[in-house]
Structures are given as C-alpha cells and as structure tokens.
Amino acid sequence: MRIPAHSVCTAIRDDIVAGVHARGSRLTEELLARRYGVSRVPVREALRTLEAEGFVVTRRHAGACVAEPTEQEAGDLLEMRMLLEPLGAARAAQRRTEAHLKVLRGLVRLGQERARRGSSDDLRSLGGWFHETLAQASGSPALTSMLTQLRHKIAWMYAVDAPASPVESWTEHGAIVDAVARGDGERARAVTALHAERATGAHRLRFGSGREPADRVRNSQHPVNTASPRH
User: Fold this and answer.
1) Which residues contact 208 (CB under 8 A, 6 or more apart)?
2) Residue (of 26, 49, 66) closest to 207 by Cα position
3) What is the mean pLDDT of the chain?
4) Which residues pair with 117 in a beta bridge?
5) Among candidate residues 224, 118, 109, the one with its CA nearest the CA of residue 174
C-alpha cells in the first residue's frame, strides 16, 4: 500500500476503527511506514494527532499503542454526541446555506426511498453523510470536527444494530431538515435530540460486558418532547 503522506493519519485511524490494528497493540513507526509506503516522518506526525484524538496512547517501554478505552469512556462518548448533535442542528437552522439544504434534502429522499424498498445495504452510509452534512451546516468548524471525531470513535467502540423501522428513522431525518429549512432552531434541537436518543439504544459495545454504556446513557437522559415530528 502506498498513500500520500498527508493521508497517513486518516489511513491509520480507519484501520484502527476497522480493527486492523487491535486494541492495545503496538504501533511501530517502521512497520507503519512500510505498510503505508511512506517515510517515518508522516507516521510520527500521524501518531501524535491520533494520540490527541484518543485513538493512540504512549506507554513507557512500549511506545505508541492503540488505546484501550473503558466502558465508562465509551458511554461518555455516546452522551457527548447526544448533547452536541442537537446543538449542531440548532446552529444549522440559523447558519445553513442553500447548498447544505439541497444536499440534506437529497440524502433524505434517497434514504426514504431505500428504506421503503427495504434496501438497507447503503442506509448506514447515507445516514453518515446526512449527519456529516448537518454538522457542516452548523457553520462551526470546531463543532464539526468534534462531531466527526465522535463518530469515528463510536464506530470503533460500538457495533450498531439496524433500526427496527428504517422508514421511521428517515422520517425523523426529514423532520430535522424541515426544521433546519424553516430556521426553527428549537425544533431542530428537539427532533435531533429525540433521534439521537433512539439511535443510542442500537449501540452494542465491541468489548466488555455489552450494552451497559448505551443503556446507561439512554436511561440517564431527562424526558424530551416526544411529539410526532411535523412533516
């Protein structure tokens, strides 16, 4: 494998998320440089970035290793996402551009069509693109970056069950876009909070005792407005 030096960080992160580099395993600069077809300099820089993001830790006598997050840390990530995604949606309602709306509406149309047909293969990737675009529409690079990191880390730590009702899930996506398009920040926040809470219950830890963090986060939330989204 040979990749551009500036893409080394992304490649290592993707491989950590995919389980190519196991939790707790050593990450030696020499072997990584050979794997990705680059010099050790971009590898060293990538490891520093990934350590700052929480994917890598430096251990005495061992050097860089893949981090081994605890169940509590994993649960905290879900709770952070449940707080930040509604904030991002509220900001998007005030700051989105017509280009953002066009992409969001297109993704909702595709998602709803695939969900009605029972074509679930690409629904997860469509959902990822939807939430990435919604974060970008917030107009806050810092918030977008935090949400992107959270999605990467949650994908690394959790397996996610398919929604029991994909059609209902994409109806919620549509309600979020409707609120964002109307500039209704509070409605966008409320609908996104409900959507995030429901999605959290589908997460299963890839390590440890199983569902506990997702259940802990869901059960710790204050009641939210569960009125059916307006269409």
Assistant:
1) 70, 71, 74
2) 66
3) 89
4) none
5) 109
